[in-house]
Amino acid sequence: MKQSRKGMLMAALICGTIVPVLFGGTSAYAAEVDESLSSFALEEMVVTAARYEKKDVDIAASTNVITREQLDNVGATNVYEALQFSTNLTIDGKAPGGAAFGSMTSKIAIRGSEKGTLVMMNGTPINFRGLYSIDSIPTDIVERIEIVRGGGAVLYGSEASGGVINIITKKDANQSSVRVGFGKQSRQNHSIDIHAGRLGVNYTYDKWGHVGFISDSKAVNASPTAKNMSQDFLKSELHNGTITYKFSDNVDAIVRHSVRDSYTNYTFNDSKYGAVNGKPRYWRDYETNETFAQVNFKDNHGFKGNVFYNRNKLRTDGKDFYSSSGSQKGYPKTSNSFEKNLTSGVDLQKLWENGKNNYLIGLSAVREFYKDADLNYSRTVSSIYGSWDTGIGSKNLFTLSARGTKVTGAKSGKNYSNFSGQMQYTHKLNDNESLYASIGQSFKLPTLKEMYANGSGMVLGNENLKPEKGMHYEVGYKLTKKNQDWKVALFATRLKDSITYSKIKDDLWETKNEEFKNYGLEVSGISRLNNGFTFNYGITWQNPKVKEGLASGVTSDWTRKYGKFLLNTGLTYKKDKWTANLSASYLADRVMNGSYGVERTKPYLLTSLNVKYAPEKNQEIALAMDNILDRDNNVSHTSSNYYGTPFTFLLSYTYKF
After folding, report:
1. Are 47 and 620 in contact (CB under 8 A)?
2. Distance between CA 627 and CA 155 in Å, rounded?
């Protein structure tokens, strides 16, 4: 049965990838494109790449947009799930649905840069000390997601050395809905989404039941005496509430609050442990508590800005029954920890449009706080940024951007400053085609915990960490037509003093600098047929590597990271009352980097099938199935194996009014 299911899936994926490339996405007997595909029109404007609206074909960067309709088609319930099938985004997962275990959050690496993904909501960064919890953001509140691959630090500041993911929330929704959903592994997903005039209110509840063992601690190349422990996922629950209000066409606000609890047992799972084998070493309750508030404002003359508040609290409670060696001496004992991360600030910008010249200037000021049981630190990060676009003739566009950053108020005088620049050039072959080139710098600050942690939370900081600095090079080609979108990008990245963690003993990691480099080729596109089918595909070959810094200035050899080959593909069919989507992400030639060194691991193949039926215009029945091949996908890239959820499904009913 599995072999038959696998064969049918691979045939569909091959068709979804090869047919558009060979035949340009339209059949010989094509007449007119189905009206249901109009939401994929490629005159889509992109805001994130330049901080103001520009046509994709005019942007000298690799971009793509996940529309509201695409979110509905793929059946994702949260943003982490929605991003799994995007071009050159490598997932590094932990719990089902992307849920976090405290500070062990699921990650999205853009172009192999683990800590270079800046996640924003409506243009405001929501990262906290290099982490983010996009699993807690329900897709119900999202209008679109814009992704810019390549260093974006010049316009958006620290943590954008890999790229930017901008989650744009609904503001003008005029339809309300209620959804109930139940599935395998005691899965539940329910939502109430109310829109009345200027007000929008959403409440989402998401639950996973007992999934079983989701991780192993023993690496393939560990020493012969090493023993294995496994993590048993018991359950998780997420409550998310969001309120939006549109005061006028120029002023709107959003407040979002979420709480997620995840429960696990960490169990001895090796005969070498003897009598304690199969018994829990400890149990944990991981709570993530988030609050995000933002007010956006603009005028009709190019000025816009926002003020924001972003708080993230992590709490871990539990009980230890044995030591890591299996000893009961001094046990049982309780285990508790917490940390609080808070950022608040303002971002203002002004755009002047003058014929072929556009001038943008802006400033931002962000206050950062970090607190745990032993630490309480803060600092202020201020920036001035700007860009100049100028047209040279009718076919050429040149863009020059810059950003100056200054840190004040940090402990021990660690008040860094930096200036970064970027140059971009676009040559329009015609209204639908362009060539582009880009060269730019990036800059990433060490977080407060990376600098000052004293080891009590498994991390030993380093006040002498250097800020990360990088160079990014990219050339590309874009074709955008009514029925076809095709993009090619050739890129190279080099990061100096990238910040990472190194294990120095059991349950203790130290922060240090390393070097990172990557180069590669990305090919992606969308083809729309007149018979109800839409194909999307992304093919990436890259070679990310790191070089660790050792004692006395000595460096190690370059070692590989993540995987070299990534294929993302999707096939959507719409006809009358039916919609179906099959999506997959395949990462091959993979390695894992961890305390035991570098080891090869098998490819992962993530799959999703979502089928929807609308018996009436205001009703919808959907069956979303994940991991339809029931593979043991290792979605981790460190020492421990973390496995994606076994085959699961969610059957839901939605009523719209």
Report:
1. no
2. 38
Q: How many CA atoms lie within 13 A of 182 on its CB side?
A: 1
Per-10-residue mean pLDDT, the chain, length 657: 46 42 35 36 69 92 92 94 91 87 86 90 91 92 94 85 94 90 97 94 97 80 68 95 96 97 92 86 95 97 97 94 89 92 97 93 96 90 96 94 96 91 96 96 92 81 91 96 92 92 78 93 92 94 85 68 95 95 96 80 96 96 97 88 94 97
Domains and CATH numbers, the chain: 2-656 (2.40.170.20)
Question: For position 41, what pLDDT does the model report?
Answer: 40
> What is the Cα–Cα distance from 498 to 113, expressed in whole angstroms?
9
Relative to beta strand 117-121, strand 163-169 is parallel
Can you read off the two tokens belonging to residue 551?
């004692």
Q: How far is C-alpha 468 from the chain's CA centre?
A: 20
Residues 6+ apart with CB under 8 A from 382: 363, 364, 365, 366, 405, 406, 407, 408
Instruction: Tell me how long the chain is.
Output: 657
Distance of CA 564 to the CA centre of its chain: 19
List the one residue out of 571, 547, 128, 147 whose CA is nearest residue 371: 128
Would the CA dihedral through 109, 114, 119, 124 be positive or negative? negative
What mean pLDDT, rounded, does the chain reach?
Answer: 88
Distance CA 468, CA 509 (A): 19
489, 149 Cβ separation under 8 angstroms: yes
Q: How far apart are CA 328 and CA 382, in angstroms?
A: 51
Categorise residue 630: left if φ over 0, alpha if ψ from -120 to 50, beta otherwise: left
Helix (H) / strand (E) element for 655: namely strand 648-656
pLDDT digits (tens, 9 = 90+) for 179-188: 999 999 999 9
Q: Measured on CA atoms in the order 44, 47, 48, 52, is the torsion positive or negative?
A: positive
E-assigned strands of 139-176?
142-149, 163-169
